[in-house]
Design brief:
21% strand, 13 strands, three-stranded mixed β-sheet, alpha+beta, 233 residues, four-stranded antiparallel β-sheet, single chain
Length: 233
């Protein structure tokens, strides 16, 4: 007497297995963009929190150093140029931020979320360092700042360079001081080392990150009046 086999006795057929795999692949393809967007947003939130922490460290440094901020450093030599505008080593040497390296050459041990191996960026108008030699460091600021348009063309944007020592000069012949004490920024989730940085970054709003696929920066700008101008989605 023959016994009729139930479905559970013969397992999966090849066709059924391929259908299941296809459904799983479809579900994954639908979920990946959402997961990627969530990961990117989490990275931006972390950047904003860390930039605020660095800002606090800079203010603590200024309190201990006659209201002066550490110098901005740039390089043009091969192997160092990409480290230009890194977080100032004084913040590590003074224990304001985590440090690494030999004690006599301590540097900030805090990587940009979107650029591992490199710190967040820092600029401050005034006397800084270029190739370890004293130099005037300027910052290009739109005339309409902080109300400049996020859609403005940075190449034609009316702006002036402020270095607090030589430029710009007012009608009375006096140096006009920068309205920005310092700028901090992340290169942003769309950063590509092979592409040039956005023009007028990080000050002009048109250089700020606008959404997925964009290569804009995520800034924190400290004004001389004590206010902070930060990126907002």
């Amino acid at each position: 007497m023959q016994t009729k086999m139930s479905r559970g006795n013969h397992g999966w057929t090849l066709v059924e297995l391929l259908v299941v795999v296809g459904i799983l692949a479809l579900l994954v393809s639908l979920l990946l963009p959402a997961l990627s967007a969530a990961k990117e947003l989490a990275g931006i939130v972390k950047v904003q929190a860390e930039l605020k922490g660095i800002s606090t460290a800079l203010e603590m440094y200024a309190l201990d150093n006659s209201s002066s901020f550490p110098p901005e450093r740039t390089w043009c030599s091969i192997g160092m140029a990409e480290h230009s505008c890194q977080l100032p080593r004084e913040l590590a040497q003074g224990d304001y931020l985590p440090s690494a390296g030999a004690r006599q050459e301590r540097y900030v041990d805090m990587n940009d979320v979107f650029n591992p191996g490199f710190t967040y960026k820092y600029k401050s108008p005034g006397i800084g360092m270029h190739n370890e030699a004293a130099d005037f460091k300027g910052m290009w600021i739109p005339d309409a700042f902080p109300g400049d348009s996020p859609d403005g063309d940075p190449l034609t944007l009316p702006r002036r360079k402020y270095d607090n020592n030589t430029t710009p000069v007012g009608d009375d012949g006096q140096i006009i001081r920068s309205p920005i004490a310092y700028a901090l920024w992340s290169v942003g989730p769309g950063y590509d080392a092979a592409k040039p940085a956005p023009t007028m970054a990080p000050v002009a709003r048109s250089s700020w990150y606008r959404g997925r696929g964009d290569n804009g920066v995520i800034p924190l700008l400290a004004l001389t009046n004590g206010e902070l101008v930060t990126y907002a989605r």
